Amino acid sequence: NLVLKRYFIQWREGRGYDLIIAKGNQNIAKVTWEILEIEKDVSKLKISLKIYSEIALKKYPSCIVPFIKQIYFLPNMEKYLLSVVKGFKYYIETGNDVQRNQFDNNPMFSSAK
Questions:
Q1: Residue of 101, 69, 66 lying closest to 87 (CA atoms)
Q2: How confident is the model over 3-44, as pLDDT tens digits?
Q3: Position 78 confidence tier, pLDDT thresholds 50, 70, 90
């Protein structure tokens, strides 16, 4: 039942964007998407993520936050980003829309809808 909001803070047409992910009025992550041209007709997608774990995991006792971050939070974030990249690849190769949870669901981001 967690709702996260995405706020675009900078848009670089044809090159990428930055966004903030927030829970309520607290920022929990900043994400930078960059399209880097390698050569003509060849690009690389780079996704950089800065997680404010002290905010995202503040409901847990501070002594266990590093463990939650290493064992649960970061692996699920990596799995989520891998699914996103697979979706980009699928769309580029097929031209078909990506369906909800097509490349796996994620306990942090997937919904039953």
A1: 101
A2: 788 999 999 998 999 999 888 888 888 999 999 999 998 899
A3: confident
| Residue 46, both tokens | 């780079």
Q: How many residues does the chain have?
A: 113
User: How many angstroms separate the CA atoms of 50 and 2, rounded?
Assistant: 20
pTM: 0.72
> What DSSP character marks residue 60?
S
Tokens representing 40 are 């003509």
CA distances in angstroms from 106 to 13, 42, 94, listed in the order given: 29, 30, 24
Q: For residue 21, which phi and psi values (nearest 5 degrees)? A: -105, 130
Q: What count of other Cβ atoms lies within 10 Å of the Cβ of residue 27?
A: 16
Least confident of 4-18, 54-68, 86-100: 54-68
Chain mean position to CA 7: 13
